[in-house]
Design brief:
Strand order of the largest sheet: 2-1-3-4-5-6
Radius of gyration: 15 Å
Shape: globular
Low-confidence stretches: 179-186
Helix content: 25-40%
Distance between the termini: 12 Å
Strand content: 15-25%
């Protein structure tokens, strides 16, 4: 079985966020819980993510939102082979004072090295925290497939996505090779 780790961004993901819906509805989903959602410290957040991945007994799919995407990009330098893929939704542009608050500058500069696992970057045309051009640049640098969801704001609870079935389909696409591989070993 593959564990899906949700990685919220600044402020955490509230009860109506699609990450929270998935955590409540799907038994394979676990949330990475940071000690302080409002004053993020990169070193602390990295340690928490690393511990969460190491705690999993199975392969892992990372499901990050906003600042969580920057966290995954930083953590990827120490990633283990157990990460089978990552869904990176609405990556916050931590380098841009025009798009993100000063509290996230500790995550700058955004790493722009290829990720060592398959990934999908999802972006919105009208996300206030990242321009579409910058989101595309992240996807290209990370070697990620790029998916535009049109005008969906920050792809969060305010976007009215509910349990976001389209996002769930993207994670299932990342997990599909894992399921096929597992079937070969039964």
């Amino acid at each position: 079985m593959t564990t899906w780790l949700t990685i919220p961004g600044l402020g955490g993901s509230g009860p109506t966020h699609w990450q929270s819906h998935w955590s409540r509805a799907l038994p394979q989903v676990r949330r990475v819980v940071q000690a302080d959602w409002d004053a993020p410290v990169r070193r602390d957040w990295l340690q928490t993510l690393d511990a969460a991945v190491r705690h999993c007994h199975d392969d892992v799919i990372l499901i990050a939102h906003s600042l969580g995407c920057a966290l995954v990009a930083h953590w990827a330098r120490q990633a283990t082979g157990r990460v089978r893929g990552a869904l990176l939704v609405a990556p916050a542009d931590v380098d841009s004072a025009a798009h993100t608050p000063p509290v996230v500058r500790g995550f700058a500069p955004m790493p722009l090295q290829a990720l060592p696992f398959p990934s999908i970057v999802v972006a919105s045309d009208d996300d206030p925290y990242v321009s579409m051009a910058r989101a595309r640049a992240f996807a290209a640098a990370w070697g990620s497939r790029f998916v535009s969801v049109g005008a969906a704001g920050h792809v969060n609870a305010d976007s009215g996505l509910g349990n976001w079935p389209d996002g769930l389909s993207l994670v299932e696409a990342l997990a599909a090779p894992v399921a096929a591989e597992d079937a070969l070993h039964c």
